[in-house]
Predict the 3D structure of the following.
Amino acid sequence: MSLIIKDLYVSIEGKEIIKGLNLEIKDNEIVALMGPNGSGKSSLANVIMGNLKYNITKGEIIYNGKNILDLKVNERAKLGLFLSFQYPSEIPGLSVSNFLRTAYNSLYNTKISVIEFKRLLEEKMDLLKIDKSFMQRYLNEGFSGGEKKRMEILQLAVLNPKLAILDETDSGLDISSLKIVADGINKLKDKKSVLLITHYNRILQYIRPDRVYIMVNGKIVMEGKAELAGDLEKHGYEKFIK
C-alpha cells in the first residue's frame, strides 16, 4: 500500500506552506520525516489525511494507485490511513473503550459486541503494557503527556491501519515514556507502512527507519538512509536553511 506524493503545493489562508513536495512511502517501510519547526511537516500530515482547512493548489497524493485528493477524511481512513496527533485532544464524558469501539465499528462497517471488543482491547492493552483501568477513563482527560501518546498508539493497535502517520509522537516525552511508546510502535509495525514525523534523532535510536527525508520551508531538501538522522543530530539544520 504505497503512498506517492507528486509536486504538491499547499496553502492556508493565502500563504503557501508546501512548495513542490515529492515523497514516497513503500509497502512495509518506515520513513522518517525530519525538519525544524515551521517547515510544514505537521501540515503535510494533515493534508494526507484530508484536513479541509488546507488548500491544495497543485499536485497529487496517490495511495495504492489511486489519487485520494477528492476523498473525505473518513474515506481515507477506510482505505487504511491513520494519523496520530501531536497534541491529542481531551474528550470528557467519552471513555477510551467507547471511543475506540465506535471508531472500530465505523472504520470496518461492523457492529462488534461489547464483550468481543473488550477482549480485543484487553489483548492490545496487554501487548502495549497499558493498565486496564484506562479502558473506562475519559479519553485523555487528566492524562500525562506520555499517557496521551500511549493512547494514540493504542488506537493504532486497535484500528490496525495499513499506513500510520505518527506526528511528533516523541514530542514532550521523558526518556522512560519515549522507550515505552517506541516499543509499542515496534510491536505494531509489522505489515504496515509508517511515516514518522519528528524534530529529533532520539526516537530513531529505538525505531530504525528505512529512509529519512529532510523537510525545510515546505520542501524536501535531502533524502537518505537512517544514518542521515545521526548526521542531523551532530550538525543541525543550519546548512539547509537559507
